[in-house]
């Protein structure tokens, strides 16, 4: 009875309801991407200079990416507590910024605002950790797909907030801060009950793939819709009725993932009615039959049950890997505990001494750190190459980043199941393509800026959605929150080294040459013009990406045997932990 009950629960609605709720939380977790929408108001209203504003940008990046504490907390606290902490951080952090920007409270010290922004954007780490860890554990056999979907919603969140900012909030920075301070906690309180651990999806449900395809399709439609509406908003002067209609359709598309559990509820109700009718017919037939027929039926039922149990046992033990596991269990009678192997659950102290852990960290540090360098300087790159309006570059990067996140998860999931190809192959390909992209940037050939930005957005997004399932498959889901947030530190570290030190130095040096005097280096309002403003930076980034792609290829060769074991037979095998041996 217990086995049958587990099979019944494995494909039921709660995990899908949680996935739909997680999509909304991931949109809210993208609040850190809103800094460009209100940074200009902080500078003008509060009288900050460019250096002070840049330091606030650093606070924004630090808060968003430092998530080790929520990673540890998710192993001891339920998801709703993690969401609650993130909601409170959002409320108090953005609330303090609103008090200052709206002049409700006068003359707050700069360091208070810096800390407030750190706290506000750190809510992203808490919210993302809660939904990612929970849903990766609820769908352990579809980690790449789930990671791609959730990271895809995170990638498109910037465009969603921009639509809300322009249409609903009339472009007001103070209203945006109030919306973030109040709206995010309300959303989290509304959905936190549904973001919870459920019986793991077994993968036996034949409709599971179609459900994932539906959500991915809805996400693609959402991305195209947001991009199209953003372009139309810039090109045409739309009247308020059209704008609000666009916003209503946007919210309807955000509700699309909930169609899966609704559909499952309707199908279940219909099947329940059919079963009820069948039971009544069966009971009527039983009354007509005599006791003798029942006695004859009983041994047949016992025999069927026995044969089913035997066949299930053979199915469970039909592979050599299962025999090896049984032998390992026999060893465990003498040796109670051993160190975990790749693919099993590691503790943090056990993982950090593994070469694969640091290879993943280095590859992620270079790939995402170099990508965020271009993202942080995209407006200056466009101006240096003669563009006057760089918002289209930001929109293009955002959409391609979203496409890379969604596609990276789906494609890696397909090939790891059909060919047992390690997911890191796609990181290798992405970083090899980034080499060509950075060289394209450095060449500054007319018409290539849009192409390079689109390619970089895709490659940047792929690495987010591929890193998540890779870490969970190599080091387990038990401490996944800690591993994920520790490796995510590569983002701000890379941004500080490549952007804060390298790109800033090269830009300012070239600007000084153009001004003709070092004394005017920090003159406000002056922009560096020409391809030399970032050429050296792009060449260094190309060299770093080339070396990182080689490291990623080595990593792929090292972990290929692990994937051949985990995905033998075309489906993921949940390995046993070392504690069970």
TrEMBL record:
Residues spanning the membrane: 80-99, 111-133, 145-165, 177-199, 211-232, 238-260, 357-379, 391-412, 424-443, 449-471, 483-507, 536-557
InterPro entries per UniProt: MFS_trans_sf (IPR036259), NFD4_C (IPR056555), Nodulin-like (IPR010658)
Domain Nodulin-like: 15-262
Any matching Pfam family: NFD4_C
Compartments where found: Membrane
Membrane topology qualifier: Multi-pass membrane protein
The organism's place on the tree of life at top rank: Eukaryota
Protein's UniProt name: Nodulin-like domain-containing protein
Organism lineage: Eukaryota, Viridiplantae, Streptophyta, Embryophyta, Tracheophyta
């Amino acid at each position: 009875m217990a086995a049958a009950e587990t099979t019944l629960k494995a494909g039921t609605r709660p995990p899908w309801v949680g996935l739909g709720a997680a999509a909304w939380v991931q949109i809210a977790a993208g609040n850190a991407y809103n800094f460009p929408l209100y940074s200009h108001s902080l500078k003008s209203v509060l009288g900050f200079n460019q250096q002070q504003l840049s330091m606030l940008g650093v606070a924004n990046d630090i808060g968003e990416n430092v998530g080790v504490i929520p990673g540890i907390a998710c192993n001891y606290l339920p998801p709703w507590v993690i969401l609650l902490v993130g909601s409170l951080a959002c409320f108090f952090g953005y609330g303090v910024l609103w008090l200052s920007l709206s002049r409700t409270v006068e003359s707050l010290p700069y360091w208070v605002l810096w800390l407030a922004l750190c706290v506000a954007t750190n809510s992203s780490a808490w919210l993302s950790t809660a939904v990612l860890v929970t849903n990766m554990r609820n769908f352990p056999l579809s980690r790449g797909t789930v990671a791609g979907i959730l990271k895809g919603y995170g990638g498109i969140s910037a465009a969603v907030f921009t639509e809300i900012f322009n249409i609903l909030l009339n472009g007001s920075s103070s209203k945006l801060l109030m919306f973030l301070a109040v709206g995010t906690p309300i959303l989290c309180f509304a959905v936190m009950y549904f973001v919870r651990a459920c019986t793991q999806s077994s993968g036996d449900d034949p409709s599971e793939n179609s459900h994932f395809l539906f959500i991915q399709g809805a996400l693609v439609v959402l991305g195209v819709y947001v991009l199209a509406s953003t372009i139309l908003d810039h090109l045409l002067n739309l009247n308020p009725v059209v704008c609000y209609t666009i916003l209503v359709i946007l919210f309807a598309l955000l509700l699309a993932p909930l169609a899966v559990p609704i559909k499952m509820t309707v199908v279940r109700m219909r099947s329940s009615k059919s079963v009820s009718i069948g039971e009544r017919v069966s009971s009527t037939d039983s009354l007509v039959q005599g006791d003798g027929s029942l006695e004859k039926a009983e041994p047949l039922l016992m025999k069927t049950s026995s044969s089913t149990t035997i066949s299930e046992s053979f199915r469970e033990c039909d592979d050599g890997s299962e025999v090896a596991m049984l032998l390992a269990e026999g060893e465990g009678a003498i040796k109670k505990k051993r160190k975990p192997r790749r693919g099993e659950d590691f503790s943090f102290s056990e993982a950090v001494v593994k070469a694969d852990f640091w290879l993943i960290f280095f590859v992620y540090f270079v790939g995402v750190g170099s990508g965020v360098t271009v993202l942080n300087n995209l407006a200056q790159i466009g101006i240096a190459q003669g563009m006057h309006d760089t918002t289209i570059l930001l929109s293009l990067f955002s959409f391609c980043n979203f496409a890379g996140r969604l596609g990276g998860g789906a494609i890696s999931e397909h090939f790891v199941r059909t060919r047992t190809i390690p997911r890191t192959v796609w990181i290798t390909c992405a970083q090899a393509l980034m080499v060509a992209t950075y060289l394209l940037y450095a060449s500054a050939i007319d018409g290539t800026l849009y192409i390079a930005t689109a390619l970089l957005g895709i490659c940047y997004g792929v690495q987010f959605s591929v890193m998540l399932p890779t870490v969970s498959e190599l080091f387990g889901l038990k401490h996944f929150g800690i591993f994920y947030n520790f490796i995510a530190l590569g983002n701000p570290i890379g941004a500080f080294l490549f952007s804060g030190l390298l790109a800033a130095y090269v830009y300012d040096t070239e600007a000084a040459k153009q001004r003709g005097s070092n004394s005017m280096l920090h003159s406000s309002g002056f922009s560096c013009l020409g391809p030399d403003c970032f050429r050296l930076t792009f060449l260094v980034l190309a060299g770093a990406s080339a070396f990182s792609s080689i490291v990623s290829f080595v990593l792929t060769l090292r972990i290929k045997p692990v994937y051949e074991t985990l995905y033998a037979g075309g489906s993921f095998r949940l390995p046993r932990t070392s504690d069970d041996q």
